[in-house]
Amino acid sequence: MAIHARRFIASALVAVFFTAAADAAKWQVEPDSSTVRFIGSQEGSAFRGRFRNFSATIDFDPANPSAGKIVGIVKMDSADTGDAERDATLLEKDWFNPQNFMESRFESERIERLEDGTFAAHGQLTLIGVSKPVTLAFKFEVTEPKAHFSGAFEIKRLDFGVGWDATNWIADNVAVQIELDLHQ
Asked: Residue 11 pLDDT > 80, yes or no?
């Protein structure tokens, strides 16, 4: 009986340790110092925008990237380029269509460490109801109890059915940049 009790206690301690270790990898976004930006091109000139309303669930330990999970959500009606006419166009049915598709979502399926020490989150991006594979390249720097996530990916907007088919006015390629300050 004493052996069973010791095994039970040892099992309980191991479970508590692994639960605490798993919890240590969960990060919360500090929204006031974090940004999700996009960069497009209009008539050959770059323009920048941001999403004012976004969230992320990051369960990530750089020592064990394959066990990590990243989910990012942006509210499509929060797009802001600093140009009222462009912002109004982005909210139209042909573009972000937030009346029917309120959110865009990235969800990682697999995370790996690259040879240069950075990471790649392979996952699905869903934009106006269309899901496509995307690889989010990122750096993750930890200074306990905080961390900084810096990532980017590029999409072709027409692959998602975003905007007009003509690319002479608005280019097809759109870069997305993500800077997140995090805490545990």
From this structure: no
- Residue 89, burial from CB neighbour count under 10 angstroms (0-12, 13-18, 19+): middle
CA gap 174, 153 in Å, rounded: 9
User: For 52-76, how does the pLDDT look when each residue is reduced to its tens digit (9 = 90+)?
Assistant: 999 999 999 999 999 999 999 999 9
- Amino acid making up residue 84: A
Q: Distance (Å, rounded) from C-alpha 172 to C-alpha 3? A: 67
Q: What one-character-per-residue DSSP string does 31-65 give?
A: GGG-EEEEEEEETTEEEEEEESSEEEEEE--TTSG
Q: What is the pLDDT of residue 184?
A: 93
C-alpha dihedral (45, 87, 103, 134), degrees to nearest 10 = 0
Tokens of 136: 């989010």
Domains, the chain, ordered by start: 27-183 (2.40.128.110)
pTM: 0.85
Spatial neighbors of 181 by CB under 8 A, at least 6 apart, are 29, 30, 33, 34, 146, 147, 148
**DSSP secondary-structure letter at 117?**
S
Give the CA angle between residues 98, 87, 149 to the nearest 5°: 75
Residue 124, pLDDT score: 98
